[in-house]
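quick one before i forget lol
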Amino acid sequence: MGWEVRRCGCLLLCLLLSVLAVSAKTHGNVANVLVNIINENRTAHKLPRLYNSSGLGCIALQYITGCMGNCSSNNTASCEPPEDDITEIFAPNCGVELPTVGIISGRLVGCQWKYLEPAEAFSNVLALNKKSLSILRDKKHTEVGVGVLGRHHGPFFWCILFSSGQTNFSFAIESGMGIKQKKGCFSGPDIPCSNILVEHKVNDDGFVYENFTKEV
C-alpha cells in the first residue's frame, strides 16, 4: 500500500514538473501556447512534432500586417500577400538571413472580432474543417511559426506558417541581430511577448481575470 502511495506521489510530481516546464516555456506568449496545441494535435495522430522556429514565427507576424483590414463581419480572413514579400519585406524586417529562407509548405490564417484563448482560436478559427486539418497534419512539415496581432476593438488575427526546410537552418536569424517587433506576438524558443498587455483584475467573487489589450 505504501509503495503504491509513493508511486502515485511520484507520478503526480512528474506531471506537475511537466506542467510547470511548459508554463515557464510559454508564459506571456500566446503564440507559443498555440504551437504546443498544434504539436499535441499532431502527436495524437502519430505525426512528429514541429520545430518552433523564431524566424518563421516572426514572418507569420509580418504576414498578418497585410491582413489587418481584411476580416469580414462573419470572421473570415481574406488576404494573401505576394510571395515576393516574404524575401523582400518580411525576412529583412525580422532579421532572417535571405539564403536561409525556406519553402512555406502550408499556411493557416484566421480572424475573429474578439480575443480568443489559444485553444479556442485553434478549434474555432484555425482548424475548422478537413482542409485546415489536412494542412496542419501534412507529413512534409518540419517547422512551424505562429503570429498573433489585433486591434483594440478588433479584429484579431492568427497566422500559422509551416515549412519543410531543414530544422535549425532555415529561417535563421542573423547573428547578433535578434528580432525586434513592436507589435503583436510571435512564437519561438525563449521568445516573450510583451505587446499584448494583460491587466489582472480581481472581481467581487475573488477570482482573477485577465483582460487583453490588443495593440497594433
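fyi The longest helix spans residues 2-26.
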